Amino acid sequence: MSGLAAVLFDMDGTLVDTEVLWWETTGEVADRLGHRIGPADAPEVVGRAVADTAAHLVRVTGGADAGAVADELTQGFFRRVAAGAPVRPGAQRLLTALEAQGVPFALVSASPRVVVDQVVGGALAHVPFAFTLSADDTARTKPHPDPYRVAAGRLGFEPGECVAVEDSPDGAASAEAAGCPVLVVPSLLEVPGSAARTFAASLEEVTPRLLRGLRRTAG
């Protein structure tokens, strides 16, 4: 019915306002390790997988076990998400419009499975995702292209037929490397521009028609 085969949504900072919760969690763990996080840490925290952030904290503090730090980050983030993860403005309206028009959509996240399931069972309950992908479901997560390649394949499409919606530099890089046209709705970090990226200030500006236009342009 249209040139738009499917939409692949990031979760944290895109559909739900959890990037702040992740920053708070990282700050709490960093404090315990004797490091106060600031703007210089943001590229290693925002939009990054747990293992990447844990490795960064080990580098800047020294002596900690990366696995233990990753576990602490996951548990702290889960507790915050379980207490409430607000849906981003415009997200529910867009998801409802895509469903009404028969456009399939999936969730592609760099968060651990336990966190994805908590959000999908809470803030995003009753949203009819075709499936969800977490950091645990591919050999490499964002910024590598694996998550978006796998997601497009599971839907039966090429990545270039699927628009990815992202908020972070690593997420946008992952989708672009996979071959997806990318709609960027920034949250905490500025995302560099590229030929494959279109920007919107909020999901409140985004419609299925806009996403179809991205598909035609990229195609």
From TrEMBL:
It comes from the Bacteria. Pfam families: Hydrolase. InterPro entries: HAD-like_sf (IPR036412), HAD-SF_hydro_IA (IPR006439), HAD_sf (IPR023214), PGP-like_dom2 (IPR023198). SUPFAM superfamilies: HAD-like (SSF56784). This is HAD family phosphatase.
